[in-house]
Amino acid sequence: MLLFIEQLLNGLQFGLLLFLLAAGLTLVFGIMDMVNLAHGSLYMMGAYFAATFAAWTGSFIVGVVLALGATFLLGIVLEYVALRHLYGRDHLDHVLATFGLILFFNELVRVVWGPEGLSLPLPSWLTFPIRILPGVYYPAYRLGIIVVSLLVAGFLYVLVMRTRIGMLIRAGASNREMAGALGVNIKLLFTVVFGLGAALAGLAGLMQAPILTVQIGMGENILILAFVIIVIGGIGSIRGAFIAAVFVGLIDTLGRSFLPDLLRHILSSTAASTAAPAISSMLIYLLMAVVLVVRPEGLFPASRR
Amino acid sequence: MTDAQQPDALLRVRNLSKRFGGIVATDDLSLDVRQGELHALIGPNGAGKTTLITQLTGQLTPDSGAVLFAGRDIGGLPAYRRSQLGLARSFQITSLFLDMTALDNVALAVQAHAGHSFRFWTPARGEAELREPARAALARVGLSERMNVRAAAMSHGEHRLIELAMALAADPRLLLLDEPMAGLGPEESARMVTLLRELKRDYAILLVEHDMEAVFALADRITVLVYGRSIATGAPDAIRANDDVKRAYLGEQKAVTRHG
Amino acid sequence: MMKQSLLSVRGIAVAAVLLMLALLPVYSHVTGNIFALTLFTRVLIYALAAASLNLIMGYGGMMSFGHAAYLGIGGYAVGILAHEGILSGFIQWPVAIAVSALFALVIGALSLRTRGVYFIMITLAFAQMAYYIAAGMARYGGDDGLTIYKRSDFAGLIDLSDKVQFYYLCFVLLIAAVYLIHRIVNARFGMVVQGARSNERRMQAIGFPTYRYRLTCFVIAGTLCGIAGALLANNTDFVSPAIMYWTRSGDLMVMVILGGMGSLFGPVFGAIVLLVLEELLSQFTEYWQIILGPMLLLIVLFARGGIDGMLGRRDHD
Which of B78, B99, B121 sits opposite C187 (nearest CB)? Predict the structure, then answer.
């Protein structure tokens, strides 16, 4: 039972982290109609920036804040220099160009930081466990991730639903030409949205850095999950991304923890131990395949374009 | 007129209805097209003419009602099946294979009705079975000299002619022509009218058009569509004289309009 | 006709490249440069894989981001059978072909119900599934991969451990595949597939049930890539899940686009350029990918027809 609660929270935390990544991706995809494979690279840069700045300044918090700003700026620069020339092009062009960016960033990181990867140690005040229920303890940092992610999700909700910028974003997501025709400064909007997406990716990257990894190529593995999430949730829909992300996070984490035991009841022990890891990894993709076949626009599509 | 009295109705539309949310696109519409007639469908913009055609060809499913072609209910059939049965369509917004030549475009239309296409070896561009009918259709619309030009390099007027040739190449029984004159200048329009008059002899035609001169010159019968509803059907003279029609449509425009 | 005219720039380039490829083992023997032979064997195999992807992507408009999965499927068919003691190529290769075709049939049947970016995503998902299945097969090496101790045995017909014979096998298979693709895309079948790429709604409106043709095309492409996978497994004496990772599908796409999508020899050019460039650049700097990355970006922005496009326009192959 204890294990279940812990894994439930882990799943929630993982899901929320994925949401941060997916939110940026779905915004960019929904509004600029751009498939950005380099989104994972921004995630990676966020982690690398955080580890570096934290080491330089000696402070975890300062490092994090600086990293966030740096990733935001990096996103803006990237959009301005390279990606804005790709708007309106075939998705395949986006795929190819941003794939090139992945290669570039991976090599850049290798050149600047070396092939080994970095670590981002947690300050002591974040390492103790917090008592959330009688007898149930959960690491403070992971709880922190959940809290921060929920705050960001709330902020995004307010931004998108309640502010003028948010209205422009929603208008852009549902009908780009119309928004442009109405005189919205599309270029500026796009740049800002892209920067926002980059910051979200960077935040996700730096938050998971202390508990998972800071290494070359870390973006590719998780990028694919983010794409799965936005496809399930519906492209352009932040709400869809949220629900799908939490769902995916829970399924993935709980699946990995409990599926082997579950399978052992049904199959022989050896079959279960070979099948279980494969199936738990595949669960998410199976889910996406099912959603795509049954409801191709995703569960909460943002618009009819 | 009851069904029993209607001679040779090749296409029969019965009580067709379609809504999109709050908008009624097709409102309990019934009409029929007989063998050998050119039946024109007119109405103000937004009356639902193209929506009707899309339901007839199977690309859109009506909410209720029936479509019978040669006596057979084609309601559940997908677009390609209806095409194979003899229902051919030209598009209002030109929808060609722009990267292929005019001849390639029309040959594809021929190929669709020439059995299955699981042939992997013989070059299709060398097959007389496909090329000859395509050449003939292009000759019929007057595009013989421009057969080998890439569609993307041809004018809008020529695109409309290719559209028509593709419909013809399918060896259809009924032509659904969606504004074939759209965007044509005076000379091209006149030529299109002559062409349609010739085609009338061989095919039943349901013609959607804004060009009133053409409509009154060609039509055997006219149906007037307003907000998805048929408000009058009959011979051209009767339609011209009909008060409802005048009020709803003709009265707002001059009797002779050029759609450009 | 394969080319507009033998004397066009493209015609000469193609002829020159084919000649070079045909004579490479001779050059290698004369200069003692075994490395070139090994490199170009890889080039040929990847050219075959790229050609198969070009069939569905360039001609068919189906942007599959999971095509590298078939390299793995074909490779594992050979590897697993070899591991279980079945060394005869006469059994291994037909199995590799059959399994690739089957996977392509299932994956295609599901994926082709979607289009655009959703199609990209779902093909990607299937490739990842294949990757995870392979990584989960502890018996066959799992994550670490499976070593193949003996190459496919063709009982005296051909000796695959002889580098030159293996090279020419790859060469012949590549030429055969390219020729086959040439016939297919110009026949009725190819017309339907190309028409569906150009305007699928119109194709259906004029009477084509496009789904079955696109699915067949997908299966043919997957099978050809499976053959490439069998060759690759023999070439490296090794197969691992890594070959199916989605970024490898990206590599294949790069080859196709670099060479010129929808052109007959484009994939061959693309494979040569990418792999040779990789080798050359890595001699200069360990960090060659830093150059490759932006290069791709520039190509997308400015040289959209790829290498084939730069050789001059063509009406059709």
Answer: B121
